[in-house]
Amino acid sequence: MLDGDMLGTASLVLAGIVIVLSLILIVLVASWFVGQLRGGSEERSESYERHREAQARDPPVEIGDVHEAGVIDFSDHHSGDRQAVCKIQGFVVFVEDLPGDLEVGDVVRFRVLSFNRGHTSATGKFIERA
After folding, report:
1. Is the pTM value of this prediction over 0.85?
2. Which CATH number covers residue 76?
3. Quick one: 82 exposed, middle or buried, by C-beta within 10 A (0-12, 13-18, 19+)?
4. 118 and 69 in a common domain
5. Buried b (16+ CB within 10 A) or exposed e, 88-109
């Protein structure tokens, strides 16, 4: 038989286990909820699928092609140079050797120089404003 002290100790250990499991459950539910607020798994799945499709398709540009496109944004290259972000049929081209006064919305003419490793974007060299 259990005496009073052993029964009290067993009750405390059991209560501690219940509290720890409850806290773990609360953390898991809170993590799931935060994930849903940030964009549920359905949105992430759709984004991932679009990314895979982009990787599978052939780029709409070739090395040496000359294109015109509007500047939609600017990016700082790891070399420290500013690049214009342009798109051709949704395909991103980072255009380098820009004049200093170029702004978002300006249309530029550029020559495609290279692709990134996965052919999911390209680098172009600024020729002139279009």
Report:
1. no
2. 2.40.50.140
3. middle
4. yes
5. beebbbbbbebeeebeeeeebe
Question: What's phi and psi for 22, nearest 5 deg?
Answer: -65, -40
* Confidence (pLDDT) at 43: 67
What are residue 88's DSSP bridge partners?
A: 91
Q: What pLDDT digit, counting tens, does each position of 12-52 carry?
A: 889 889 999 999 999 999 888 877 776 656 666 777 787 77
Higher-confidence residue: 124 or 90?
124
Residue-wise DSSP of 54-99:
HHHSPPS--TT-EEEEE--EEEE-TTS-EEEEEEETTEEEEEES--
Q: Is the pLDDT of residue 76 over 90?
A: no
Q: Which residue has the tokens 């255009």?
A: 95
Exposure string for 45-61, b = 16+ CB within 10 A, e = fewer: eeeeeeeeebeeeebeb
Residues 42 and 66 in one domain: no
* 63 neighbors 57 (Cβ within 8 angstroms): no
Do both 71 and 121 map to the same domain?
yes
Domain that holds residue 87: 60-129
For the chain, the domain total comes to: 2
